[in-house]
From TrEMBL, chain A:
PANTHER family: ALIPHATIC SULFONATES IMPORT ATP-BINDING PROTEIN SSUB, TAURINE IMPORT ATP-BINDING PROTEIN-RELATED. Keywords: ATP-binding, Nucleotide-binding, Transport. The keyword Cell cycle does not apply. This is ABC transporter ATP-binding protein. One of its GO terms (molecular function) is ATP binding. Residues 2-231 form the ABC transporter domain. It comes from Pelagibacterium lacus. InterPro entries: AAA+_ATPase, ABC_transporter-like_ATP-bd, ABC_transporter_ATP-bind, P-loop_NTPase. Belongs to the ABC transporter superfamily. It comes from the Bacteria. The keyword Glycoprotein does not apply. The lineage of its organism: Bacteria, Pseudomonadati, Pseudomonadota, Alphaproteobacteria, Hyphomicrobiales.
From TrEMBL, chain B:
It is a multi-pass membrane protein. It comes from the Bacteria. The keyword Heme does not apply. It is found in: Cell membrane. Keywords: Cell membrane, Membrane, Transmembrane, Transmembrane helix, Transport. The lineage of its organism: Bacteria, Pseudomonadati, Pseudomonadota, Alphaproteobacteria, Hyphomicrobiales. The chain crosses the membrane at residues 12-30, 67-86, 126-146, 189-211, 223-243. This is ABC transporter permease.
């Protein structure tokens, strides 16, 4: 289980995160949603061990995280900059597996399965820059899945793709979630996305950031872009989160 | 290979200008009988006689050997040290004065010293050629490592990529476009340094041949040597460009893709 306790992060005088305490239940899909500029990416970098918090701590199964743990993978927002342009899609997915010293057949199977599950079986020998943005992000997701992490962190992964690709990728995440038993922490500024994807939602306020509310999403699985998004419960949750976030924004401007 | 019309036109243009210049020289020099500017066919026959015979092994090969040894040894060292300095801020700060001093020093200034210390044999020449090649590659490797997208390095850190793989598969390929810019500079400097060192102290080599031809007032031979140097320079550079085109195909592709978006 992943937990943050009294986490704060400041850069000199700039307080990015005030005080965050939250828990990310094992095997659950937790969305972190908040107004833009509220330090969501900073929080995720602290969770991943890439960034050391200024105060508080991040605990994985009770042990504090200081370096990126073996059991974690991270999908960045900027897919075009997180894939290695000198490696093919297959090589990109294979790269983190090198240190695992898997048998060649086992490794190839993992790579092929991961690429097939994101619908990229035919693009394995292409270079990332030969692919569309959505396909590049699928490659990054396949790389994370082939790694078989216990915890998958995602930093606004669909923020820079078009709307159609975005809903495709959202559905892909739901399928992957059902298929692999991972803890997923998904940062987004899109309220609909957080309600549609999450089992839990952590709503953040604006800077200095604190947790405004933690919600459960009781929507049934499997979810569907059209029917789920028109359920009264979905609409209710959506406007609830919306109000929470708008309130922080008005409080900030007032 | 298939050429389209524009490529053919470009190729024709590329060949036409030197051809025109050579013709102009031939027309200009033929009637003058100037000792310093001999007629074209005299230079050409000197070239054929000198450089397409025994001198290939007697002079061209020793020159090339010095040049390539200096270039390769220096490049490998410079890339290795550049990777360390490019990654470690502390190492960079510690070596900055040293690097700045040596790169500002014109390498020919070290010629007398290396001749004294290392003698007149090939070691001194290889060392000097290596010295000129070292700094462009070093500085470009450092810049290349520094210019690798931080997100690519964070990705490597996130997945716990071991140091060896990080160096071989992240740092070196990431810095490669910049390293090649350094290699191109170095290669042309290497040719310069080879010639200078052979002017001063050598018993064979292309530079030595030019110098000897000058001393014996064999002007056509001197011209032939100069032409050979030009051709060697073009050949070496072409080979380097071909290697680069092969190794950095991804770089051209990704840049082209980036400019389309």
């Amino acid at each position: 289980m992943l937990r943050v306790e009294g986490l704060g992060k400041s850069y000199n005088d700039f307080v990015a995160i005030g005080d965050i305490t939250a828990e990310f239940a094992a095997g659950k899909f937790t969305c972190i949603v908040g107004p833009s500029g509220c330090g969501k990416t900073t929080l995720l970098k602290c969770l991943s061990g890439l960034l050391a918090p200024s105060k508080g701590r991040v605990l994985l199964n009770g042990k504090p995280i200081t370096e990126p743990p073996e059991s974690m993978a991270l999908v960045f927002q900027d897919y075009s900059r997180s894939l290695y342009p000198w490696m093919t899609v297959r090589e990109n997915v294979a790269f983190p597996l090198r240190k695992k010293r898997l048998a060649a057949s086992d490794r190839d199977e993992r790579i092929e399965e991961a690429l097939a599950s994101v619908g990229l079986a035919d693009a394995m020998d292409k270079y990332p820059w030969q692919l569309s943005g959505g396909m590049q992000q699928r490659t990054a997701i396949a790389r994370a899945i082939a790694y078989k992490p216990e915890i998958l962190l995602m930093d606004e992964p669909f923020a820079s793709v078009d709307a159609q690709t975005r809903s495709d990728l959202e559905d892909l995440m739901l399928r992957l979630r059902a298929r692999y038993n991972m803890t997923i922490v998904f940062v987004t500024h899109d309220i609909d996305e957080s309600v549609y994807l999450g089992d839990h939602i952590v709503v953040l306020g604006s800077r200095p950031t604190t947790v405004k509310e933690t919600l459960n999403v009781p929507l049934a699985h499997p979810r569907d872009q059209i029917t789920t998004k028109s359920e009264p419960q979905f609409l209710e949750l959506r406007s609830h989160v919306y109000t929470q976030i708008m309130r922080t924004n008005t409080a900030q401007t007032a | 290979m298939k050429f389209n019309r524009r490529q053919l036109l470009n190729l024709a243009l590329e060949l036409a200008v030197p051809a025109a210049l050579i013709t102009a020289y031939a027309v200009w020099a033929a009637p003058r009988n100037d000792i310093y500017f001999p007629p074209l066919q005299v230079i050409l026959s000197a070239f054929v006689e000198d450089w397409l015979g025994a001198k290939v092994t007697a002079d061209i090969w020793p020159s090339l050997r010095r040049l390539l040894l200096g270039f390769f040894i220096a490049s490998i060292l410079a890339i290795a040290i550049g990777l360390v300095l490019g990654t470690s801020r502390r190492a960079r700060i510690a070596t900055a004065p040293l690097v700045d001093f040596f790169r500002s020093l014109p390498p020919p200034a070290l010629l007398p010293l290396t001749l004294l210390v290392l003698g007149v044999d090939d070691t001194a020449k290889v060392a000097l050629i290596g010295l000129v090649c070292f700094f462009p590659v070093l500085l470009n490797t450092m810049a290349g490592v520094g210019g690798i997208d931080p997100l690519l390095r964070e990705t490597a850190r996130m997945y716990g990529i071991p140091l060896r793989d990080r160096i071989l598969h992240v740092l070196i390929p990431g810095a490669m476009p910049s390293i090649f810019a350094g290699l191109r500079t170095s290669l042309s400097l290497a040719v310069i340094m080879m010639v200078i060192s052979e002017f001063v102290a050598a018993t064979n080599g292309v530079g030595y041949s030019i110098w000897r031809a000058r001393r014996s007032f064999d002007i056509a031979d001197m011209w032939a040597g100069i032409i050979l140097l030009g051709i060697l320079g073009i050949l070496l550079n072409t080979i380097l460009l071909l290697v680069e085109a092969r190794l950095l195909a991804w770089h051209r592709g990704s840049r082209a893709a980036a400019s389309r978006n």
